[in-house]
Design brief:
GPCR_Rhodpsn; Rhopdopsin 7-helix transmembrane proteins; mainly alpha; receptor; olfaction
Amino acid sequence: MYVISILGNSVILFMIKTDPSLHEPMYIFLSMLGATDLGLLIATIPTILGIFLFNSREISFDACFAQLFFIHLFQCIESSVLLLMAFDRFIAIREPLRYASILTLPRIAKIGLVCMLRGVAVILPLPLLLKRFRYCRANILSHSYCLHVDVMKMACSDIRVNIIYGLFTKLLTMGLDSLLIFLSYIMILRIVLSIASNVECLRALNTCVSHLCAVLIFYTPDIFLSVIYRFGKNSFPLLQSLLGYICLLIPPLLNPIVYSVKSKHLRARIIRVFVK
C-alpha cells in the first residue's frame, strides 16, 4: 500500500508539473492534495514500517510528539485542500467563463499558504501541551504511530485542557471544512438543477464525482474513529486499530486512482507517458 500510494501520488505530481496543459486550477488543487498525501505517508513510515519490518517497537517522547504534530498537520491541510476543491467546482459550474480569471495561479498560491499557516497555528499547541505532562502509566500506544488523543490518555496529569483543545481543533478544522463542503454542494445542486438541458446537468455533476469520492474516503473513517475514541474505546479495540490504518493509508492510496480514472485528460497524459 505504501509503495502504490507513493508511486501514484508521485506520478500525479510529476505529470501536473511537467505538462503545461495541466496547469489549470483543478489540477493545481489535485497536486496540493497529492503533496499532502505524500507528507502524511512520510510522517507515518518510520514507526509503521519499523514495527512490521524491523520489529522496532519503541519511540522517544520527542519523536512521538513530532510525529503526531505532522500527522495532524497534514490531515488538517488535506481537509483544507478538499474544501478548496469544493470551492473550485462551485466556481467552475457557476462562473465557467470567468473561472480561469478568478482562480489565478498567484491567488491559488496565496490560498494554499493560508491553509498551511492555519494548520500550523492550530496543530502546534498539541505537542506543546503534551510536553508539559508527566507520564507514569504503561506507555503503550493503540496504534503503530502517535496521535494526540492516544498519547494524552497516558499522562498522569489533568488533561481537561487537552480534551477541550483537541475537540476545538477537530471542530475548527475538519468539522468546519466538512460543513462548508456540504454547503458548497447544496449551492452546486441549486445551480445544476436550474440548467434546462439534462445532458448539461449530468455533465456538470460528473465533474464533481472525483471530489465527492475523495471527501467520502477522507472524512468517513475519521468520523467513525472519533466516535469510537470518545464513546466505545474499550469495546472495539480491533475496529479502532483498523480504522486508524484506514484513515492514514486509504486516502493516499485511492485518491490518485479515483482522479486518474475520472479525469480523461489526466488519464490520457499518464497513458501516453507510459506507452512511450
